[in-house]
Amino acid sequence: MEWVKGSAIGRGSFGVVNIAKPKNNSEEFPSLMAVKTSKVSDSASLQNEKLVLDQLQDSPHVIKCLGDEIEERNGKKNYNLFLEYASGGSLADKVKVSGRLPESDVRRYARSILKGLYYIHEKGFVHCDIKLQNILLFSDGQNDVVKIADFGLATRRRETSACQMRGTPLYMSPEILCGREQESASDIWAFGCAVAEMVAGRPPWKWSPESDVCSLLLKIGLGEVLPEIPYDLSSDGKDFLVKCFSKDPAKRWTAKMLLTHPFAAVDLFDQNDTVSSVGQNGDDQARVSPRSLFDFPESISNSTETTPSHCTFSLSEFSPESDVSPAERLRQLAGEEPTWSSSGGWETIRSVEWFSADGLQEKLESMEFW
């Protein structure tokens, strides 16, 4: 496929996201796409995203993967991942512009996200980085449709160990920060944080640039307090979030259970909207170890409280046999603000061969990322 690259529309720990379009009209590809690009040597998370998305393409609530390639230019090799283009941006963008969202919209978005999470979990995966920045907005001609995106940290259930931590601190569940295995319940905690953020217009944890990040992580991981539930949320909404914020992951409601809650009740939207079983493989255990990347979301607060902007935490290597306490574990999280380059204008990219999923699987299985 020959394609044309447009201006940058986003950046992440993996690299940059650009608008892209096929050079020639084709029924196989849409007129506009999003392309994530990184150096081949730094493409582990993008390759992991491709492998995961290849197995999650049957849900209308998960972003579609359109293919990948390795591009060589000026003696350098880049890895490109092609995805659906979300013209509406992310839910984080919407909240940043609009502030607090109407509860009716929050309930509709929450149900769509839950249906996506139910599908992902039934397929045996954990997303590991649910947040508003990773929920993208599409239009079906009448309403906004949301889809779950950014599967770079996603993994099979029950394959993480106590020395692996993945996600964004303000959305991390207590069990992750205390070194327990990352399971589907962790996604539900993060989802609850996202719902609270849509309602309040800011993250449920109070934080300011002057605050100590370590104290915040200790508070989430070891404290007794829960994320702040918006005071003006309906009683159904408050109860819904309580079900998401159980400190004990075994008592936290699942996506399937939450879909039956009055806050996300089916009869509020579409009488024909049902949830069906979609796959199994819940106990599959692939051995893939993506890097631990922790980037705070941009500030979306309309008050003086802000969230850390574009901070990346790298996790020190921990051994499951280590005597390091959970508190010391959190204190050892540290990071530096990354430096990103920008690109603009339209640039023609020559065609290259597409990697097969099997080829990427072999490459991933031969790598270890910490």
TrEMBL record:
GO biological process: signal transduction
Any matching Pfam family: Pkinase
Stored InterPro entries: Kinase-like_dom_sf (IPR011009), Plant_MAPKKK (IPR052751), Prot_kinase_dom (IPR000719), Protein_kinase_ATP_BS (IPR017441), Ser/Thr_kinase_AS (IPR008271)
CDD domains named in the record: STKc_MAPKKK
SUPFAM superfamilies in the cross-refs: Protein kinase-like (PK-like)
GO MF annotations in UniProt: ATP binding; protein serine/threonine kinase activity
Keywords: ATP-binding, Kinase, Nucleotide-binding, Serine/threonine-protein kinase, Transferase
Cleavable signal peptide: none
UniProt biased composition (Polar residues): 299-319
Region feature Disordered, mapped onto this chain: 299-323
Superkingdom as given in the UniProt entry: Eukaryota
Domain called Protein kinase: residue spans: 3-264
Residues reported in the UniProt entry to bind ATP: K36
Family: Belongs to the protein kinase superfamily.
PANTHER family (UniProt xref): CCR4-NOT TRANSCRIPTIONAL COMPLEX SUBUNIT CAF120-RELATED (PTHR48011), MITOGEN-ACTIVATED PROTEIN KINASE KINASE KINASE 19-RELATED (PTHR48011:SF18)
Protein name as catalogued: Protein kinase domain
